[in-house]
Amino acid sequence: MKEQEQPKQQGNSFVTERIKERPINRRKLLRRTIITAGMAVIFGLIACLTFLLLEPIFNDWLYPKEEPEVIIIPEETEETLPQDMIIDEETIRKQEEEAVIDQTIDNLLEEMELGIQDYRIMYDKIHQVVEEMAISMVTVTGVRQDVDWLNDTYENRGQASGLIVADNGRELLILTSGSILDEAEEIHVTFFDGSEEVAAVKGQDSNTGLVVLAVEKEGLNAAVSGSVVPAVLGNSGGSGLIAEPVIALGNPLGNQFSALYGMITSTGTHLSMIDSNYTLLTTDIYGSTQAQGILIDLSGSVLGIIHQEYNSEDTANLISAIGITELKKVLERMVNGRSELFLGVYGTDVSEEAHLTLGVPKGAYITGIVMDSPARNEGIQSGDVIVRMGETEITGFRDLTTAIGESRPGVPREIVLMRQGQQEYREVSLQITPEERVWE
Length: 440
What we know:
Blueprint: H1 26-62, H2 89-111, H3 116-134, E1 137-147, E2 153-167, E3 171-177, E4 186-190, E5 196-204, E6 210-216, H4 222-227, E7 245-251, E8 258-273, E9 276-286, E10 292-297, E11 302-306, E12 318-323, H5 324-335, E13 341-342, E14 345-349, H6 352-357, E15 364-369, H7 374-378, E16 385-389, E17 392-393, H8 397-405, E18 413-420, E19 425-432, E20 435-436
C-alpha cells in the first residue's frame, strides 16, 4: 500500500506512520491449495461411491419391484376316487354304448383306404404341433474367451436346446443342459424371433445335470413377451405310454432346430440316483448320440427331457428321455431358486408282494448309502425302510424325494424308519440334517 502521510499543522507535530503488507508465504499458500483440492477430490469420490452404493437401495425403495411368484408344478395322481369305484346301471349303459360306437369306428377304418393326400394331411398336423411348440423352445449359448496358437483371442460358443418351463412374473425360466455352463463366461438365450438376451443361472440339479436359467422379462421385446408361453408338462408315469406317438424337438440330430417323430417303445428302465428314481423313456427314433431337447406327445405336452447318457451300446443312437413326472419336483425347486439338498440314499418302493409275503413295511426301502453323507453319518443302513420324515408319511421312495426337497438347509428333521431285527421290524427314530449338495 502507498505510504500515507499526515499533513503538518501549525503548532502541532504529528508522528508519520507507514503501514506495510505482510509478505506472502508462497509455499504455505501452495500447500493449502493442494490440501483443499485433495479434500475436494476425496469428498467427490466419497459422494460418488455413496451414490453408487445407495442408488439401488433408494431406487428399490421408491420404485419397488414385484416379488417373483412362487411356482408350483402339480404332480399327477393315479389314485381312484371313491365315487369312481361305484358302477351304477347308468355307467354300465354308457359303457355299452361306447363299445358299440368303438366297434362301428373300427369297422369303418377297416373299410377305409388312405391316399397320398391323407398322409399329407397327417404330416401337416404334425408340423402344426411342431410350429406351436417352437415358441416355447430357445437356443442357449455359452460364450467364453479362448486363445489360439497365435495367441489371438476369439470367442468359443457352445450351444444347447432349452425349454421355457415357467414365468414368475419377473423372469422367464428356461430348462437346459448343464453342459452349457462348462467354463462359460456369459450365457445367451435366443428366442423364436431371433432376439437374444443374457441369462443367469437360477437352479441346478446334480443328478440329471439339468439347470434352470432366468431371463429378465423387463428387457424382452414386445414380440417375445407377448407370444411366449411356458410349455405344458404332461404325465410320463401313467400306463399305456407304450406305442404312444411322440415328437423329438430341439436338436435330436445334433443341430439346431431339428424335429423327428416316432413312438415310445419302452418305459421299463428305471434310473436309480442319489435320493431320486427316474423312468427312462426309450423310442424308435434314430438320432444323434449327442442329442438334446424334449419329447412331446401329439397334443404338445412334454413327456420327457432327452438324455442319451443311459443308452446301452446297441441302442446308442435311439432317442431316450428322462420322464417328466419324476422331474417335476426337481423343476419346482430349481425355478424357485431353492438349494439342492440331499440325504445320501439309494432306494426303491416296497412291492405289494414283499409287503404281504415277507412282512416288509410300506415305505422307502433303502438299497444303498452314499459315503460321507448325512444318512451314513447318522446311522441309516441298507435294508432300512423309511416310513416318516418330519410330518410327512413316506409310503414310497418318491415321497422321500419330495420330503427331502421340502427341507430347509441347516434344519434337522426327524426320520422314523423300520429296521429288521431277528424276529420282526422295529422302529428307529433319528435326527438328520439334509446337507446342501455341491454342483459338480
